[in-house]
Amino acid sequence: MQKQGLELKQTQRLSPLQIQTIKLIELPVQELEQKIRSELEENPVLDDGPDPEKQQDDDQPKDISIDEIKDDGEIPAYKTRINNWGKDPRPEYNTFSVRESFTESLMDQLGYRNLSERDYQIGAFIIGSLDSDGYLRRDIESLVDDLAFRAGMEVSEQEVEAMLKVVQEFDPAGVGARDLRECLLIQLKARTQTEDVKDAYRILNEQFQEFTNRHFNKVMSRLGLDEARLKAAISCITRLNPAPGGQLDDSYADQAQQIVPDFVLEDQDGNLSFTMPRFNIPELRVNRKYADMVTEAKGSGDRAQKEAATFIRQKIDSAKWFIEALKQRQNTLQRTMQAILDFQHDYFLDGDDAKLKPMVLKDIAEKTGFDISTISRVVNSKYIETHFGIFPLKYFFSEGMENSEGDEVSTRELKKALKDCVDAENKKKPLTDEQLVSEMEKRGYKVARRTIAKYRGQLGIPLARWRKEL
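Now predict its structure.
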């Protein structure tokens, strides 16, 4: 038997203004500039040109009131305009390069080679098959099959091998290798062939397994090297790059290859503050000409004129939401950055990681009154320029734990202490994870062995046996 009944549900729907604000908050400065330019092109009501009303006396109204069009009410002019410039003239801003796209760099180099169209296509396919660290982890046979099925090219394994050799000549050295050994050998081939380089090449080419297992006596005996030459060769090997693709970054693929800081830290004798440069973000306002058209259409009996006025009114609403969303974005970013600055005040004085307090999104949400999701959007893709470097805002967030004195310390401080322990160890007898636990305890940090292993991995510090030196 079916029953019918009424059920009340409370749902929250975001207004156009809220949706617009959320989208703008997520954008870094350069993307915001592009968004504003796009909005100016799509909405004729928005204007960024000189305001003709500014020529009038200050007592005269400067902008049309949007709500005045609807109900003849009085609304201050600031609601229909936004000034994104600071008090000073628009500054020439510094841009900070992010690394060029890995794939773009290789494709540029491929284009410089005098290749047939067929070889170029094979080379491009190989480049597209590389992992982010620059390795080719697919066998030649698979590439031949993929070229046939995905690119419609019937090629031989010899052709692919030949083009792989070409790609392996590209910068950064080592790119296109199929394993670590080949990667390091490619780099050594590209170097000036000194005695150290030749010894290093022989070690990796002939005694790779013994070398990686730290069987140094066997390596010296089989290659006829003394300890001094082995040390020199090892020094040469350790300066090689095991992940050539890591020099370049695809995280900004299809985006501008530069970043602009959203905030600039200022330190006046210990008094910290920040600015929010506006750069190429123009002053926006509602174009009075279109607003006047809507006002004139009120008393008109012309149907076409009224339809045009309806369209313009919709564009005016859109302009109002966009201008207000920009204001809310600026306010949200400003309050969030101020809360971070207050929370991490001691750190921002000199950039000492030991002074970076544990801080999570919830801490800043409570200080600002914003939702955690809003703080997350602000933190994402935003940067601050300080006198000790350029940092993404998410750098300042970390979990924490207590030290031996009961004070809460950040995981970043713990990692720094762990790195200091490893740097200070005897490299002939490197510390095991259990010994690192004891060393950390001596420094006042009680950390479990599994935590040591976790932090060691995050810091890229290998196991003790891999850190052993002669």
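The chain has a mean pLDDT of 77.
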